Amino acid sequence: MAFWGTSVGEPVKVGDSMLGLPVLVAAGGVNSAGRTSRRHAYRRMIWSQLSSADRNATTGALAQMMGIADATQILNHTLVREIEPDWFDYKAVRWHRRASLEAGQSEAIFDMCQGASARGR
Q1: Model pLDDT for residues 3-33, shown as the tens digit of each residue
Q2: What are the structural domain ranges in the chain?
């Protein structure tokens, strides 16, 4: 039995829909949240359920690792989140947009068959 009476591998259902459980992809070590050890990534995911003492201990440890003292800034920068545009603006990358291609649009034209026939194919 794995989760509320279901066998391992069985989908857990609530009513007619699948239960939307989060997937923990890393906890401990250097993880996807960019923090290290002592289960800080896990504690950040269950932040609302932590006692005041655990919150203070976690905030203090993260503040020391991050080199900042502002609790709001710590909380805003310690979960897996969208990449901030000042770090890397992925929305500005050209290949994330619809391409407009037409014949004769570019001078970079090549013939793939030409190289194959030169090798005797």
Answers
A1: 444 444 555 555 555 544 445 555 555 555 5
A2: 13-87
Using CA of residue 10, residue 12, residue 16, residue 17, what is the dihedral sign? Answer: negative
Contact by Cβ (8 Å): 49, 38: no
**Count of C-beta atoms within a 10 Å radius of residue 79:** 14
Kindly report, residue by residue over 27-61, the tens digit of the pLDDT.
Answer: 555 555 555 556 777 888 888 899 999 999 989 98
- Is 19 in contact with 13 (CB distance < 8 Å)? yes
> Phi, psi (5° rounding) for residue 6?
-100, 155
Residues 78 and 44 sit within 8 Å (Cβ to Cβ): yes
